[in-house]
Design goal:
Length: about 70
């Protein structure tokens, strides 16, 4: 069973910081920098810590054992 959550966007891309807020992982945009410093986040299988990283449809994000796909 695939437990990957789909995150639907209506723009060309969303930044990693925006994604964290949009997916209800953090509650305020200001938390993104600290969250990224304290947690391992994988984008398409590679560690990522830049809150400005652009995520596009098809990208997969893993945060603390939860998987998300940008759609």
């Amino acid at each position: 069973m695939d437990d990957t959550k789909e995150i639907h966007i209506t723009t060309e891309y969303i930044t990693l910081g925006q994604f964290l807020k949009f997916a209800d992982i953090i509650h305020e945009g200001g938390e993104a920098k600290r969250f990224l410093a304290e947690n391992e986040i994988l984008v398409n299988g590679e560690a990522e810590a830049r809150r400005g990283k652009k995520l596009r449809p098809g990208d997969e994000v893993n945060v603390n054992g939860s998987a998300y796909r940008i759609a």
